[in-house]
Amino acid sequence: MRPLDEKETTLVFNKLHKFVGNNLKNIVLESQSHEGPDSNPGRYCFRLQKNRVYYVSESLIKRATNIKREKLVSLGTQIGKFTKAGKFHLTIQSLNLLAANAKHKVWLKPTSEMSFLYGNSVLKGGVGRITENIQVNDGVVVFSMSDVPLGFGDAAKEYGRIAVKMDPMGLWHRETRLAGYVGAICS
């Protein structure tokens, strides 16, 4: 397990910034860990192990130095992975991190939650509430009406078109990543 190099850090931070915006500083700088026997809180940092990026506390990293690199399977929370082409993809395990710091949020009505969970795109009629100023291709975190995070993806329409001009059966949300299911990409 090693720290991210400059190129990897840029890719990870760009992807996280898409979903959390300026709240990225909360994830990187201001998050304090209260794990382990240490009396003073440590920080969280990003580490790379076999093309997977983990969000892990410094105290846990110190304790993991006793384990051989080949034997180490996982450490902390996996937030994403690098593809063979060098791109970075967020995984569903990052949902709690994204939900706590999300810039753009969408709440679904109970009738459309299951459709979303099965990988279908979100229709305007299924949206209960929505944050303002969402543009096309902005990263959004999807919640149930009881504030349970369900997934994340890209906005297919901007906020003004959703609120006023769009047909209730029109597609609003695309490229849903949730528990191994990939939703239809709609334009």
Low-confidence stretches: 174-187
- Which structural class do the helices and strands define? alpha+beta
Largest sheet descriptor: 7 strands, mixed
Shape: elongated
* Number of helical regions: 6
- One letter per element, helices H and strands E, the order comes to EHHEEEHEEHEHEEEEHEE
DSSP E strands, number = 13
Please provide a brief summary of the model:
The chain has 187 residues and is of the alpha+beta class. The chain contains six helices and 13 strands.
List the helices and strands and how they pair.
Elements: E1 2-3, H1 6-20, H2 24-28, E2 32-33, E3 42-49, E4 52-57, H3 58-64, E5 77-82, E6 88-90, H4 95-101, E7 105-108, H5 110-117, E8 122-123, E9 127-130, E10 139-144, E11 149-155, H6 159-165, E12 171-178, E13 181-182
Parallel strand pairs: 7-10
Antiparallel strand pairs: 1-3, 2-3, 3-4, 4-5, 5-6, 7-9, 8-12, 10-11, 11-12, 12-13
Please provide a written account of the structure.
This protein is of the alpha+beta class. Helix content is 26%, strand content 32%. Strands 7, 8, 9, 10, 11, 12 and 13 form a seven-stranded mixed sheet that branches.
Record keyword descriptors for this entry.
alpha+beta; seven-stranded mixed β-sheet; six-stranded antiparallel β-sheet
